[in-house]
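Quick one, tokens below. Sequence please?
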């Protein structure tokens, strides 16, 4: 879709940030190749993401609204990913960590923002040697955590792991530890062909002592908090479904961008080929169908939010199932186009090839895993002995 074409936004998204994203599409597209080669977003892009307020939509210091910023985050990331999936990823996934910071005590938030409003929060996945150990003065953090998107530009890092010797370990499976990014070692391990510019490197902590006031029970931070008076539902409902579903913004936008890149790359002779026309229409129809599912995923969470209703176990399983199904549809739509354009699209600098690599990397994320999602939802359907209503 050209940035000159009116973007159809989800009804819950605030138009102004999304329209600003549309206005930035051409420059993000121009930088996408260099970002892939450099394996990180440019300083200009990060400056724009902050000045355009996309990285602060869920910040603890963001203006409160009664409609929630979460759908706007997802839609803005979708728009950005049409030009550069890594930019959309940082918008949705990395900025989404601010919703965790929102739930921390005010004194901790003051510490995080002591150096100014421009703060970026990264997270990382645990590995076999991620270690937390309780001491009288704090938690000792040691070992390696993986896939820390945005760590090169982050100011704070949110790590989690079990802490077996913690006094509260008997009822707290994992602890969330807030670490200054400058206090950890970044390991240049991110060499993926797709989503290269997210800079999702591993990190290493070397016997770092974190004071207890920056250590929290992970399940309590993510839990439903109905007694909280905050306006934004992102502060009240269980947080995990929102964070996991944010990924559909860059996913769907990347697929749309691939379709745009395919059409733009066609020569006059190819454009007149009826086989090409059939494939373009097929993928466009598949993406239209995927768009309806994308809209439904956002709507289900938004409606639950504005009505202060946490999703049931069955609803969560269907949410997970539909995220995985959306990912498969997007991958198939792009794969069809790559196969039709042929070897000419295999060059590293070709936009379609970049989108193809990016969407495979996104679809490999655990929150979009096909087998686990379908197995869990299918077993629940069979166990209940009734037709699974979407």
């Amino acid at each position: 879709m050209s940035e000159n074409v009116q973007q159809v936004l989800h009804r819950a998204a605030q138009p102004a940030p999304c329209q600003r994203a549309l206005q930035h599409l051409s420059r993000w597209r121009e930088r996408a190749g260099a970002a892939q080669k450099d394996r990180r977003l440019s300083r200009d892009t990060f400056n724009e993401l902050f000045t355009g307020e996309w990285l602060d939509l869920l910040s603890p210091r963001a203006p409160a609204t009664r409609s929630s910023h979460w759908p706007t985050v997802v839609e803005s990331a979708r728009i950005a990913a049409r030009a550069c999936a890594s930019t959309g990823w940082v918008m949705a996934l990395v900025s989404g960590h601010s919703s965790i910071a929102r739930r921390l005590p005010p004194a901790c938030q003051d510490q995080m923002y002591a150096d100014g409003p421009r703060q970026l929060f990264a997270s990382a996945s645990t590995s076999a040697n991620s270690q937390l150990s309780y001491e009288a003065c704090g938690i000792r953090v040691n070992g390696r955590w993986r896939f820390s998107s945005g760590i090169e530009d982050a100011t704070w890092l949110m790590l989690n792991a079990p802490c077996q010797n913690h006094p509260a370990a008997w009822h707290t499976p994992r602890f969330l530890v807030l670490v200054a990014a400058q206090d950890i070692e970044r390991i240049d391990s991110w060499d993926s062909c797709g989503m290269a510019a997210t800079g999702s490197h591993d990190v290493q902590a070397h016997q770092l002592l974190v004071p207890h006031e920056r250590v929290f029970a992970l399940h309590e931070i993510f839990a439903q908090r109905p007694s909280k008076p905050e306006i934004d539902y992102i502060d009240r409902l269980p947080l995990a479904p929102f964070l996991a579903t944010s990924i559909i913004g860059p996913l769907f936008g990347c697929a749309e961008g691939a379709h745009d890149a395919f059409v733009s790359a066609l020569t006059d002779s190819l454009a007149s080929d009826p086989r090409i026309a059939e494939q373009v229409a097929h993928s466009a129809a598949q993406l239209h169908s995927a768009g309806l599912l994308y809209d439904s995923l956002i709507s289900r969470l938004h409606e639950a939010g504005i009505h202060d209703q946490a999703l049931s176990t069955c609803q969560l399983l269907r949410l997970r199932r539909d995220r995985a199904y959306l990912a498969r549809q997007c991958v198939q739509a792009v794969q069809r186009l790559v196969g039709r354009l042929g070897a000419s699209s295999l060059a590293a600098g070709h936009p379609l090839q970049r989108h193809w690599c990016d969407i495979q990397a996104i679809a490999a994320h655990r929150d979009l895993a096909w087998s686990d999602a379908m197995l869990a939802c299918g077993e629940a359907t069979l166990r209940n002995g009734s037709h699974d209503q979407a």
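Confidence is low (pLDDT under 50) at residues 1-5. The CA atoms of residues 138 and 211 lie 4 Å apart.
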